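Researcher: We're teaching a course module on how sequence relates to structure. For the next exercise, students receive a sequence and then see the predicted structure as tokens, so they can try to spot secondary structure elements on their own. Here is the exercise chain.
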Amino acid sequence: MGIADLIPGISGGTIALITNIYKELIDTIKSFNFNIIFLLINFEFKKIYNTYNLKFLLPLLVGIFCSIFLFVSFISNAYENFPIHVFSLFFGLVIFSSLSIFLTSFKNSDLSFLLFLFLFIGIFFGFFITTLNPISLSNHFFSIFFSGMIAICAMILPGLSGSFILLILGKYFYIIEAVKTLDIYILFIFISGALVGLFSFSRIISFFLKKFYYNSLFFLVGLMLGSSNKLWPWKVEDDNVSPFFYSEFLNENNYIMSSIIIFIISGIIILLFEKQKLKFND
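Model: And here is the predicted structure for the students to work with:
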């Protein structure tokens, strides 16, 4: 999830859905409330650990932050020097994980018209978001707070990149600069908005996953598929093109064979995840 958040166009939520921890992640975030303040004051750390599922959350957060700090240079270099290969991997992960969810749903439920309706709504919404042009918000308190709320909501939704949403809102470079200069005032407002968005939006997602699990799941898969146009490896001036047009227009290697191999590897990764999941369930 940490590596995914380093790459524009893919979110940590996508990886959480692929690795089958998405529902537990949302439920864990949702469980946080103001009662934790009183538990902290009374040093009831064991109760905090058990009440808020820190057995799951702490290793996850450690993994995310470790991957961000350990792999930021590697991922940045790979993204800049081998973008076709990087996006081939993530494009494959999205396609094969979606196929895996379809097959699992086929075994566990009836594939009704309603499920496919939610799938296509998700595809439309995911694709629509990726076609929006950047807007320019002011640097007012409420604009920064609102940007934090919307960006974090995107980060926990599969298929939507928080950094991409910040680009649309015209706040990506503004926040990056605040991080570089350690502008505490700007970061405090942004993080406050992010926390409000995280804890409120996680409750909405958790509700739908509990009441309408497969409908919600197909909508989330649709989001991934719809926004996957941002992960297409071959682009000319930000437009998706065929690998052959890419090499002809730019006079560059399209790396089609190595990309196909990486695409197949992504399918093997999903297959291994599925086998591990079945072993765990048994």
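Model: If you want an answer key for the exercise: Residues 54-81 form the longest helix (28 residues). Residues 2-281 form one domain.
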